[in-house]
Amino acid sequence: MNALLDLFTTDCIALHSPAKNRAEAFALAGSLFSQRLNLSSDLIVSFLNAREDLGSTALGAGVAIPHGRVKGLKEPVAALVRLNTPIEFAAPDGLPVSILIFLLVPEKATQQHLEILSSIAQLLSDPDTRSKINAESDPAKVGLLLQEWST
User: How many domains does the chain have?
Assistant: First the structure.
C-alpha cells in the first residue's frame, strides 16, 4: 500500500522555486497549503517552524521533510518543493537541500503520521527517485511518480 497516494495534488508541487533560504521555502509551502486548506499562510509556517526549531528535518542527500501538526486539520496533506539552488538546512551529511516534502497532519495524528513520514523518507532515500524528481519539469508527472511509488 502507498501511504502517499492521496497526499499530493498538482497545485502543491512547485518544481522551480527561487527560494534562497529556509524562510522563503517555508513561505512558499505556506502559500501552497493556504490555498488548498483555506488557512493562513503565516499560521502554516508557524507550525512548520515549531517542528523545525526542535531540530532539522533534513535527511541528507539533498532532501528534507519539514512537517507540522495542525489543529483542525482533518486529513494529512503534503507539498513538494524543488529549489533552483540548494539551501543550507543543517543536514546530517552537511549537504544543502534542494528537494523538500512538506507534510501537515492533524494535531492528534499518531501511527498514520509516522507511516507517512517513513514512506516519504524511504522515497527520498532512493537515488533513482531523487533523480527522477530532479529531472522532471511537469508537476503532474512528479505527482504521478509520488502516487505510484511503493516501498
Answer: 1
